[in-house]
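To the wet lab folks,

You asked to see what we're planning to order before we commit. Fair enough. Below is the target structure as tokens, and below that is the sequence we designed to fit it. If anything looks off to you, flag it before the synthesis order goes out.
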């Protein structure tokens, strides 16, 4: 099965309106290439509306949030609902990022509730899973990831509304990257688990991204790994030149 590659940028808590020039550069620089791959930028919530307005002027890049609350509205000071993201122009939302799992105690149940909320609002969710260094060193990687995958997804997910991002916690923002062999082992396992749960055809359809210090210099090797259908990019997505180079690497190994 051919799965279209997706390169998603996670700006985390970075970006002011002055940063919109980078978005313009990404949009203009990807105009031709984006026909072959999907490109997504997930800025802080404050920039979703201006970026979505800018991108609707003719670009191919989509915009997403980095988190949402499970409720549609209500007394949840400081939270943003999936419907609000959608209203601001988002088409996607990242859920279960390891920084949210660690900083806000989000477990698989919470992620699953948020996933249902994202789908209720019509957003495509990028669900993150990943092992810590201690878990990898203890030989628990595949078990931990299998549990996170099983617990974070509800039964009705489909490849058109859900993307999985494998992000080893020890590789995020550290400059350390999982080796292509390690990524291949994990993605093969995840693909197998998806097939067991959702059936072969649906399981084959889900896009599996790799994330963790993806840079222009290592993107080609990672994108060439079997069952890697794109990347979730943190630091390197803040610079148009680097992000576009990663998009180009993905495009070249469609
Ligand atoms: C991330 O934030 O999801 C991420 C992978 O960050 P970085 O690329 O900076 O490691």
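Sequence we intend to order:
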């Amino acid at each position: 099965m051919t799965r279209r590659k997706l390169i998603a940028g996670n700006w985390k808590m970075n970006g002011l309106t002055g940063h919109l020039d980078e978005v313009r550069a990404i949009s203009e620089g990807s105009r031709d290439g984006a026909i072959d791959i999907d490109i997504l930028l997930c800025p802080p919530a404050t920039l979703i509306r201006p970026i979505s307005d800018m991108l609707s002027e003719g670009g191919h890049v989509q915009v997403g949030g980095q988190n949402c609350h499970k409720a549609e509205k209500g007394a949840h000071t400081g939270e943003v609902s999936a419907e609000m993201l959608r209203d601001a122009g988002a088409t996607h939302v990242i859920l279960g990022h390891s920084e949210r799992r660690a900083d806000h105690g989000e477990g698989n149940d919470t992620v699953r509730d948020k996933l249902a909320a994202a789908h209720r609002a019509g957003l495509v969710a990028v669900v993150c899973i990943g092992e810590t260094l201690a878990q990898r060193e203890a030989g628990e990687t595949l078990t931990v990831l299998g549990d996170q995958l099983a617990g974070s997804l509800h039964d009705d997910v489909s490849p058109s509304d859900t993307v999985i991002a494998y992000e080893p916690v020890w590789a995020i923002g550290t400059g350390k990257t999982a080796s292509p062999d390690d990524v291949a082992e994990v993605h093969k396992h995840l693909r197998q688990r998806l097939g067991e749960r959702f059936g072969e055809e649906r399981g084959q359809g889900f896009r599996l991204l790799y994330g963790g210090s993806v840079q222009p210099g290592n993107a080609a090797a990672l994108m060439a790994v079997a069952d890697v259908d794109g990347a979730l990019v943190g630091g390197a997505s803040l610079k148009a030149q680097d992000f576009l180079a990663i998009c180009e690497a993905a495009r070249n190994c469609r």
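Structural context that might help your review: The chain has a mean pLDDT of 95. The first strand starts at residue 6 and ends at 10.

Thanks,
Computational group
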